[in-house]
Amino acid sequence: MIGRSEEYEKMFRIEQQLWWYRILHESVGRALCQQFGNRRDMVILDAGCGTGGMLDFLRRQGYTDLRGVDGSADAVAFCHERGLNASLLDLNDLAGYAPDQTYDAIVCNDVFCYFDDPALVRLLTELRRRLRPGGVLISNNNAFDVFRGQHDLAVGSTRRFVRADLERLFPMAGLRLRYTTYWSLLLSPLILLVRQWQRLQLRLGWRSPDEPTSDVYLPGNLVNETLYRIAHTEQKLISRTPFGSSLFSVSDPT
Ligand SMILES: C[S@@+](CC[C@H](N)C(=O)[O-])C[C@H]1O[C@@H](n2cnc3c(N)ncnc32)[C@H](O)[C@@H]1O
């Protein structure tokens, strides 16, 4: 994804409105409240913060000490445009970045897919080292290979996860998985249909794998609001679901 300026530009433009980001931001907000109650002064790092939608959401929720790092200069520039505290950093080099700085919470959304197992365990180990006592790592990741589509090609994602992957890798880094859920169960059939259609088009040569576009686009207001309502209602009614294109997790140091 790094280097694909148009993907960052799209993300920056619509991440505050698109149903998927809104649900994700609310899930992170809820996890923070469950851990820290009404506190708003914790030190929070968004590792792989993209164009800053998550940090901007948290700022609007009243959180005061927010920092972001990302390996894309485009992403960091968009964060700065939003007035956010963000730095350019390859997360493979996290150990050398402000090594004494620790955090109450680290958010790392949709970044693990760029790391193979050994690199991911190194990253997780460093994220865990940076957590203060009582701290949490909150991470959303793309799930289940069956959802692989041109979106994955567009954002350069190399892998998708299932819960067993996190159960295998997190303990290697000294992290305990406290909560996981896939989402959105109710919208899975629709997402699956779209992704399978994309795969078929690629296979038939109707779309070029060299010019993939991500699913980051804003549908009409009615469609966007309906998708948001469905996913939002699901999250209110069911705290854990067994299937979905994303896997949300909360973990802490063992
Ligand atoms: C799919 S985007 C997710 C962005 C953001 N976390 C969000 O939820 O909107 C993945 C982000 O990870 C960043 N990234 C990928 N590999 C990275 C690396 N090695 N170091 C730092 N950032 C990286 C990309 O630049 C991109 O902003």
Automatic annotation (TrEMBL):
Q: Which domain of life is it from?
A: Bacteria
Annotated Methyltransferase domain ranges read 44-135
Q: Has keyword Acyltransferase?
A: no
Molecular function GO labels: methyltransferase activity
Sorted keywords for this record are: Methyltransferase, Transferase
Annotated CDD domains: AdoMet_MTases
* Protein's GO biological process: methylation
**Gene3D superfamilies the UniProt entry points to:** Vaccinia Virus protein VP39
Among Pfam families, the record links this protein to: Methyltransf_25 (PF13649)
Protein name per the record = Class I SAM-dependent methyltransferase
Which organism does this sequence originate in?
Spirosoma sordidisoli
